[in-house]
From TrEMBL:
Segments forming domain Nudix hydrolase: 1-131
Protein's name according to its UniProt entry: NUDIX domain-containing protein
InterPro entries the UniProt entry points to: NUDIX_hydrolase-like_dom_sf, NUDIX_hydrolase_CS, NUDIX_hydrolase_dom
Origin species: Acinetobacter guerrae
CC cofactor: Mg(2+)
Pfam families: NUDIX
Gene3D superfamilies to which the protein is assigned, alphabetical: Nucleoside Triphosphate Pyrophosphohydrolase
Length: 139
């Protein structure tokens, strides 16, 4: 089974919980996620993927919050709650080396907003999982 890490950044804006998301120029709106390298811990993979895709540097020891086997792909996604020392802007672009180099457009997405058709089904599944987690744990 393919395993992926999903580093999660959350912020509270007014009374709304928001999650870091981005628009991929070829594949719509997404959450940061990526592969675990050989001999890499899941925690380090989450920190690395967050930096590679967004430019943000997570603190050491992100907190594992759960895993989800996606219905559509049977991939096993491992979610890690990350914290950063800097304040991330409301929006920004970041050039990522994925697929030969792509510019990702980052933004904060309300956890309780229903995802539009711009979101791929696998990320809609992930958002439902995360919404349930944060509603239960009141982060």
């Amino acid at each position: 089974m393919i395993k992926k890490v999903v580093p999660i950044l959350i912020r509270r804006k007014a009374q709304t919980l928001e999650i870091l998301a981005f628009r991929h120029p070829l594949a719509g709106m997404q959450l940061v996620k990526g592969s675990i390298e050989p001999n890499e811990t899941y925690e380090n993979a989450a920190i690395r993927e967050l930096f590679e895709e967004s430019g943000l540097i997570a603190r050491d020891n992100p907190k594992f919050i759960g895993s989800l086997v996606l219905k559509s792909t049977q991939q096993d996604w491992f979610f890690y709650y990350c914290e950063i020392d800097q304040t991330a802007p409301d929006t920004w672009t970041y050039f990522c080396l994925d697929d030969g180099g792509l510019t990702f457009e980052f933004f904060w997405y309300s956890m309780h907003e229903e995802p539009s058709e711009d979101w791929h089904e696998i990320f809609k599944e992930a958002l439902t999982f995360l919404r349930t987690f944060f509603d239960t744990h009141k982060k």
